[in-house]
Amino acid sequence: MKRVLVIATGGTIASAEEGSGLAPALTGEQLVAFVPEVAQVCHVEVSQVMNVDSTNMRPEGWLSIAGEVRRSYDDFDGFVVLHGTDTLAYTAAGLSYLVQGRPKPIVLTGSQLPMGDPETDGKRNLLDAVRVACDDAAAGVMVAFGGKVISGTAARKVRTRSFEAFDSLNALDLGRVRNGLVTWADGACEQMCGAARACVAEEVGGAPSSARFYDELNPRVAVLKLTPGMDALVVDALRPACDALVVEAFGLGGIPEYDGITETLLAWVDAGKTLVMTTQCPYEGADLSVYEVGRAFCDRPGVLMGGSATTEALLAKTMWALAQAADPDGVVDSEKLAELFASC
Predict the structure, then answer these.
(1) Which candidate, 135, 127, 124, places its Cα nearest to that of 188?
(2) What is the largest CA-CA distance in the chain?
């Protein structure tokens, strides 16, 4: 029987009403006790790394989860992370870059209703996640939720109440869990470890290692969603607190030319900071070369293209790449940053 470590972090699945709204209250041990069927699938142990509403999850939390996986890696066949749904996609993306190669399965799940609610989806999601973590074909970071299995770099929460809360953006679902069986989609094995898998292959010059752990992120990254009439002062206000900015442009990648928006964004690059360009549209990605209003950002050092990746994945990738490209004094090698970003 396989061994799975359940890493509990809080979230709705662990929440209870205590007079001022739902808040995490149950421990990981209590959550697993709600699903006795787990014992028929594998041997489970629990680690409680935190117990927070996922609104309060930060990159430091991603590092804590990855650190727990690393410490326990040799003792378990797979890992299930119980997490609040609101920022689950960010954590899944973060873990995808912090744990690379072809690691043992790391499966994130949670619920839309607390585990103690008679109508909860938490029992099914927890059991499904354990089944995925025990599957011989599973590898890398995934989200198991509402019967879907999604790559950790493609997940996004798209519904606030429905049990099918997550979709896979610009990538097929890896598989499904139905009637207790995990069924993988065609090509799932190639996609399993996400885009980060290729990065390790580039670094070691061959096949990806079984797992490679990273323990540094640069959290000084913000996301800027452009809006009609935005004042360039908004962009300037972010500069002191950020080393990089993920810019959600219009459509294929339109950047306003009025009121100095383009010039102010390009001033970030001139100041040695990084821009990552993406689109506000969830599907099909950005291409800033198509329209004149995006061309100024094409092929410019310091400007990285997000392609069809989710904003969640781009934020996590940028935090990871900035940390790996920095020297001991914190100075970022822009060429190394671009190479890391392009290879993952």
Answers:
(1) 135
(2) 64
* Burial (0-12, 13-18, 19+ Cβ within 10 Å), 141: buried
Q: What does the DSSP assignment read for 132-172?
A: HHH-TT--SEEEEETTEEEETTTEEE--SSSS--EEESSS-
AA identity, residue 213: F
**What does the pLDDT look like over 31-47, one tens digit per residue?**
999 999 999 999 999 99
Q: N- to C-terminal Cα distance for the chain?
A: 34
Closest to 336 measured CA to CA, from 344, 326, 328: 326
Q: DSSP for 165-196, please give it.
A: -EEESSS---EEEETTEEEEPTTHHHHTT-TH
Summarised one tens digit per residue, pLDDT across range 144-164 is 999 999 999 999 999 999 999
Which of the following is catalytic: 9, 12, 311, 318? 12
The per-residue pLDDT for range 62-110, each reduced to its tens digit, is 999 999 999 999 999 999 999 999 999 999 999 999 999 989 999 999 9
Contact (CB, 8 A) for 254 and 278: no
Active site residue 12: yes
The 10 Å Cβ neighbour count of residue 231 is: 12
Distance CA 167, CA 155 (A): 6
Structure tokens that stand for 326 in this block: 């920095």
The C-alpha atoms of residue 249 and residue 263 are separated, in whole angstroms, by 15
Q: How many CA atoms lie within 13 A of 152 on its CB side?
A: 33
| Residue 195 amino acid letter | A
Q: Which amino acid is at 80?
A: V
